[in-house]
Design goal:
The chain has 233 residues and is of the alpha/beta class. Helix content is 35%, strand content 16%. The protein has helices at residues 17-29, 58-64, 91-119, 139-159, 200-210, and strands at 8-12, 32-37, 48-52, 73-76, 122-127, 164-171, 222-225.
Length: 233
């Protein structure tokens, strides 16, 4: 596998948005993709396998675990956005975001990364967010995305000598269906300085590179794809 840029990739949230774009991109690169999503699949390809699973339910992830352990790559893109300022927080929504954004990739990585390390090759990419640095009204969401950076750096340090890399890709406002979610109606996206939203395909291309042998020296990093949003920070 070390000389082969493709293999089997597990992609969460593969039915829509960034996850779907990543799955589509990897299929075009020659990967076999196992897509994990609670929603029905929207991709159809010979090398694509849709695995229905509730990623917010650790026991449901355990149910499909035997179908995941041989993966060479894990991309966690599944997510939701719930907003609210202090005094108006939806604590059930906060718990949901924690389970989906943090508990799910932790459960999946605990399952697949040791097997990757034994084989001497593995790639993990977690989809974070520029919001992880903090934004009014998005504290709960930001906290879950910030946690991904800490997880990635910790796991990268653990496995750096075993051929496994772990990175975070943190987009600014991206053109996905999440922007139309009524749950965020009071919190409009901020257009990046380039004057347009980030495209899911742009994020997918970066993820594809991070999964490749050429990216073997990149690990433990939080890589922004922000359209210039971080230039003044």
């Amino acid at each position: 596998m070390s000389n082969d840029p493709t293999g089997t990739a597990v992609v969460t949230g593969s039915s829509s948005g960034i996850g779907r774009a990543v799955a589509h991109h990897l299929l075009a690169q020659g990967w076999r993709v196992r897509g994990l999503d609670v929603a029905p699949p929207t991709l159809s390809a010979e090398c694509f396998e849709a695995i229905p699973v509730d990623l917010a339910d650790r026991s449901d992830i355990a149910r499909v675990a035997p179908r995941l352990v041989d993966a060479q790559a894990l991309v966690h893109a599944a997510g939701v956005l719930r907003v609210g300022p202090l005094g108006q927080l939806d604590h059930d929504a906060g718990e949901l975001m924690w389970r989906l954004h943090v508990q799910a990739p932790t459960t999946l990585a605990d399952l697949v990364v040791p097997a990757m390390a034994q084989r001497g090759f593995g790639r993990v990419v977690l989809i974070g967010s520029r919001v992880a640095q903090g934004m009014p009204g998005r504290g709960q969401y930001a906290a879950t995305k910030a946690a991904l950076v800490a997880l990635a750096r910790s796991w990268a340090a653990e496995r750096a000598g075993q051929g496994v890399t772990v990175n975070v890709v943190s987009p600014a406002a991206t053109e996905t269906s999440m922007l139309q979610d009524p749950a965020r109606a009071a919190s409009a996206p901020r257009l990046p300085p380039i004057g347009r939203l980030i495209q899911p395909a742009e994020i997918a291309a970066l993820v594809g590179y991070l999964l490749s042998p050429a990216a073997a020296a990149i690990t433990g990093q939080d890589i922004a794809i922000c359209g210039g949003a971080s230039l003044n920070q």
